[in-house]
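Hi there, hope your week has been kind to you so far. For a while now I've been wondering how a particular protein folds. I'm sending you its amino acid sequence along with the backbone structure tokens. Could you read through the record and tell me how the tokens relate to the sequence? Take your time with it, there's no hurry, and the full record follows here.
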Amino acid sequence: MSKELIRRVLGQWVTAVTLAFLLGCNLTTAVPPTITVATPLVGATAVPTVLFVPTLTATAVPIVSPLPTATFTPLPAQTASPSRFTNLRFTANPANPPQTEFPVGTAEVFALWDFSGMVNGDVVERVWRKDGAAWLNREEAWTVGSVGVIANVSIYDRGLGGLDPGVYELDLFVNGVWQVGGRFTILPRPLSGSPAIANLRFAATPIGPPQSSFPAWTQQIFAVWDYQNMGVTDVVRREWRKDGETWLEREDTWDYLHYGPQGVVNDVSIYDFETGLPPGNYELLLFLNGVQQLSASFTINQ
């Protein structure tokens, strides 16, 4: 074979190989699937193929129930314990009616109250205030039974002038629980000014018209006069004369509890309830703190 022919054949072969390589890189060649049938081994037991099937997990979805409706049920009313002390009142004497005001010079004021449901051994506290400030406090065990009236509790100042003027308050407690309270007033002292007495006259009765003469053997004759600015330390002296001679004398510290600072005296008298007052000329001299202030006279006829 000639060299030229060999070169021609080799050239064609190289060209064909090159084209085949290029075509193999760019074209997809369909390869039919190969079906392989598994042939079980003789004497072998077929094992089934278990496919894993995922288990679905149920997620609980809460069911929303309707909210309950609130229903208001009122609590039963609380019943307050009845007070064991009641009817607190004040007086200058347990036998006298109650008062809320007392004249200056009052020496003693009693506190009275009713009680019930008490037990011996209960602790009783009395809290006094004067003009809004703490003044006296007393605490003691109860010893007087379950029901009754207290009439022996008092405040006092038996010195000259008596209890000071002002507003007095009392609160009562049993075992620390307030029971009742009350107040009273000691009236103020008279306004500034000198004490004075005036307008002395005589009458057959405390409120009768003035007279200068009376029938024979009149049984009782009243001396009446006005006064003002009187105080607990003032002293009044009465000097009675009959037919020019001293007949009867009386001297007293002013009874401020009874008369107060101003008013009318109409409860002073001379009397003889058996045979009557004898006829004659009568005269009364009034002295205030040692100084004569008034004089007046009357006649009992024959």
